[in-house]
Amino acid sequence: xxxxxxxxxxxxxxxxxxxxxxxxxxxxxxxxxxxxxxxxxxxxxxxxxxxxxxxxxxxxxxxxxxxxxxxxxxxxxxxxxxxxxxxxxxxxxxxxxxxxxxxxxxxxxxxxxxxxxxxxxxxxxxxxxxxxxxxxxxxxxxxxxxxxxxxxxxxxxxxxxxxxxxxxxxxxxxxxxxxxxxxxxxxxxxxxxxxxxxxxxxxxxxxxxxxxxxxxxxxxxxxxxxxxxxxxxxxxxxxxxxxxxxxxxxxxxxxxxxxxxxxxxxxxxxxxxxxxxxxxxxxxxxxxxxxxxxxxxxxxxxxxxxxxxxxxxxxxxxxxxxxxxxxxxxxxxxxxxxxxxxxxxxxxxxxxxxxxxxxxxxxxxxxxxxxxxxxxxxxxxxxxxxxxxxxxxxxxxxxxxxxxxxxxxxxxxxxxxxxxxxxxxxxxxxxxxxxxxxxxxxxxxxxxxxxxxxxxxxxxxxxxxxxxxxxxxxxxxxxxxxxxxx
Length: 486
Ligand SMILES: [Zn+2]
Hints:
4-stranded parallel β-sheet; binds zinc ion; 486 residues; disordered N terminus; alpha/beta; 5-stranded antiparallel β-sheet; 34% helix
């Protein structure tokens, strides 16, 4: 979590976390999985309680539950009462209870209703606690392509926290509810105990004012109505509206880009809405707003000074990451690496800006005419020239010198396994071998000449195979002595 902000929606947080590629990042989020249904076992377990006991025996922590023996209306009511009190002591929100028969065979003989789609069971939710309050104003916030209304109201206490804003989604929703101007009396809840929501308007005061200009770029707005659902949404007509640039900014500041640590997409969005950043170079002048930042929700002196430090640190950036950060169509990390294997960054930029040959870079292996043309067109665009120029005046670019081609590994086939120390990673070692005319394969075979493994005495299958076939096992140091000029 960045800057100590709470995530708005735990379900999205959990599912989003599971799609992360970095296992350690997933681990650091401490997600727990709590099973509540056993789908299949080879031998049927015919009561729900025993199914849970079976899962617990396997080491899972199952959903909280209790069994009511010979239930009566009174004993069920009593149990619901007890759980209602007990659940308030949990450190996570709980939105309902399920009551079902324990005997799973008997339960399947029950009927199914649409909403409570469990045979022989009944799921219900507690009524959301609601609060009455008064609208202060509507904040129009501009995200990727729409300008969405957010109700800002007199603070109320709901389920233990203070709530003062709630998204109104779109214009149709405002109309459905009857949202007016300041003073409109509204009723709010926390949907699923988490997301503040306006559920009712008890008295409309004045009329909803839909802004005619974009809150970010001041261009004109237009109301659009979707054909499928007849939902009215507000849009900024300016294709270059900085709010639409959110994705670009997100890539720019990402780890693979210039890497401004601690600057989340939500924060970037805030800065865009405030008009603090309209082009990349503006990120390097956020210190102008340090005082305002310190008073913003979610920021303290410490996080502001950390952010400004990260920004300063990002002023020194590798050429490849700089190029990737620019978000040039068809120019991903691989293309950046290939372009910079032939040109220095400044050569590359000036070549692209002055050439009349759109396919000039397609002579580089792995770069086709389309990618070359996309790169040249982007670099020749007047607006992009300024973006690059402004950035270059803020940044210090470090170049990784292209590896000089040679023939030190000519005709040899290598397999690399285990950790490397001298080279940054196995890919860098592989790139070196290939630049010297050698080959790198994934598994040891008769055609392998050397297995590179720093743990020469390892009992790994690759090492065993190499020993069987009489192939030399060498350490990284041996490799450097034999196959480099060092
Ligand atoms: Zn705009």
